[in-house]
Amino acid sequence: MQLTREVDVLVVGAGQAGLAMGYHLKHAMDGRFAIVERAARVGESWRQRYDSLALFTPRAYSALPGLAVPGDPQGYPTKDEIADYLEQYAVTFDLPVIQETGIRSLTRVEGGFRARTEAGEIVDARAVVLATGAFQIPAIPAVARELDAEVAQLTAATYKRPGQVPFGRVLVVGDGATGRQIALELAATGDREVWLAAGRPRRVSPDRLLGRSIFWWMDTLGLLRASRESRAGRHLMEMDPFPGKHLALDRLRRHGVRVVGRLTRAEGTRVAFATGETTEVAAVVWAAGYRDDSRWVAIPEAKDAQGAFRHERGISPVPSLYFVGRSWQWTRGSALLAGVADDARYVLGHLLPYLAREQSATAVRETALQLG
Asked: pLDDT tens digit string along 26-71?
């Protein structure tokens, strides 16, 4: 598919957020829109994750609107299954995805936006939806620069399998689901002593309760749809729980993972923790979250002083600029396949009236010029 010079709506990113937005655009408007994707294949960001990754949401809660994930609805899909599913989703609904088309810069121009691709092409759009997702650049603390070059350093994005990690003592920094999964996988090899630097307390929920997925319970009780402004939503944001009792800290300790406090200092090959412990390490895996890559968006009003994107439920303070797929954009499911479509539908409800108003205003201006 070729990229046209002008579109009504440009969607940046063809992950689950961009495809959900595309699904709703396809069914709601006749105007021109395009979804641009930097990778050569849809779903490539999933394929690039570590080999053993499986979702903690069952297939029944891992689907976008209109197409189920193949397989047992109660089973847990692998990252490659989800990648293939997203690729098939784009084909099934004939979504206008243009691959190998990264956006180098986005600027504001009269009548909308101008995007410049990495190949130098120019695309003008009346509205833009940034669907680049919540996981862009791995967050690596400044203390990493104090480690010697002989200490191997990987991130949750570059770690693929235990074979990449040298033998000896390995420190995993970040005890969310990803950090704990990586620590458990490394400890299981028996060839490495694994330390896990934990931060604030995290609650781990069971995968299933009374024979049903914990996500069925969250859905039934309305917790998946609890907004970030509700009491339940605020509690979920504060606790930030994730399912998987096998990832509870006591279970990790039983499998040989040494759990220590927050990492506070590094010098050479030695690291220190808030608990007062110190040790030498051969490798560090940084799994402490992600941050925005907003450098390519040359619109200061769209960002705060730290460069993070500004929005209210996906609506930017910049007219006709929108977001889908942000973590806790509105609910727990906003950055998950389970909830991203609801946010896309909400954004569409703002985008379409804006386009209609602009079209009417343009028609009035053109008529006035003709009569003038």
From this structure: 999 867 999 999 999 999 999 999 999 999 999 999 999 999 999 9
Alpha helices in 29-154 (DSSP H): 44-47, 79-92
- The number of CA neighbours under 13 Å toward the Cβ of 145 is 2
CA–CA distance, 232 with 224 (Å, rounded to integer): 10
What is the total residue count of the chain? 372
Q: Summarize pLDDT for 19-35 with one digit per residue, the tens.
A: 999 999 999 986 799 99
> Quick one: DSSP state of residue 222?
T
pTM: 0.92
Residue with tokens 């389970």: 338
Looking only at the bridges linking them, the beta strands covering 204-205 and 242-243 are parallel
SS3 32: coil
Instruction: Please report which helix (H) or strand (E) contains residue 197, including its range.
Output: strand 192-197
Task: Kindly state the tokens that stand for 326.
Answer: 């942000």
The token pair that represents 267 in the structure block: 């010098």
In the block, which residue shows the tokens 């929005």? 311
CB 35 within 8 A of CB 94: no
- Contact 324/335 with Cβ under 8 angstroms? no
Residues 356, 368: Cα–Cα separation, whole Å: 18
Residue with tokens 């689901």: 177
